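Hi P.,

Sorry for the delay on this. The queue was packed all week, but I finally got your sequence through. Input first:
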Amino acid sequence: MEKSSFEALIDVIRVLQTHQIQYMLVGAFSSNAYGYPRATKDADIVIEYEEGVLKKICESLGSDFKLDPQTGFELMTGSIRNILTYYPTKFEIELFRLGKDPHHQVRFARRRRLPLPDLQIEAVIPTAEDVVIQKLRWQRDKDIADVRIVIAVQAARLDWSYIQQWTDQHGTTELLSRLRFELKV
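Then the structure:
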């Protein structure tokens, strides 16, 4: 029986947990955990990469999953990624290798395990502050919409000085200030 895309993602998360591969579910799934759910066409996972880890993941998942042997390179942070596709639904899971970007290192160290109602599983995700920081950095429309929602829902619980430290470094402080003003936070 064919699995849904979400069930395929749950399988990937379970494989990571079973093999004790350090990971962090990011992107829409992490912002959904701190705000309101939105639809997404893919999933993004940061993994602590070491030789053989991708082979181990693929072997554990079975033939419905295919790993694109071509690596991609994300310019903003210098991240290397591989795309894992669940072929029955064409759902893509981007596996980003944890790189040397200073914020990515700190964000990975601060990650936490939380229940994700959308997936009905516990998974490791970044903190709400780190979701805000990274999505401000991307500045795509969907990311700014996610930031608005996370701030609106989490405002009283956010560590604003931590966020400010990173937005100063990334040059996104003005954008953050504008969003906070619009949201009256």
